Amino acid sequence: MIFYGSGKKKTLTQLSVPICLETLFYMLSGMVDTLMLSSVSDQAVGAVGTANTYIGVFIIMFGVISSGMIAVMSQNIGAGRPGIAYQARQLGLIFNALIGIVMSVVLATFSGGILRIVKYCSGFA
């Protein structure tokens, strides 16, 4: 049970259902994209598959940071230091936001070069 924040008890089911739904919808969107583009060309299907792989890597990267933040928060809540837990939460959110902004800028700026590298490495050059 979790007592942090509003003081309401949360069960494991209440916490895990949103995570499972998010993962399911992410996987379904990749499948739908692949099925829709299968009638266009093999290159389009390959491009969507590559993009879904990169998106999955980014989701895992942010998930690892969030898991670390949750571990530090849980330890401090258990030790009776909610102020430090709050600081850990704020630091984790700021760190995720900064990494998201930096990755967005890098991908937007160097998207052409990244696509040329992927095309060259995949053998379609």
Walk me through what this model shows.
This protein is mostly helical and 125 residues long. It contains 4 helices and no strands. The mean pLDDT is 83.
Approximately what portion of the residues adopt beta-strand conformation? under 5%
Give the overall shape.
Answer: elongated
Order of helices and strands: HHHH
Main pleated sheet:
none
Structural class: mainly alpha
In short:
By secondary structure, the protein is mostly helical. Helices cover 82% and strands 0% of the residues.
Write the layout of secondary structure elements.
Blueprint (H helix, E strand, L loop, with lengths): L11 H26 L4 H37 L3 H28 L1 H12 L3
Helix pairs in contact: 1-2, 2-3
Keywords:
single chain, 125 residues, 4 helices, mainly alpha, 82% helix
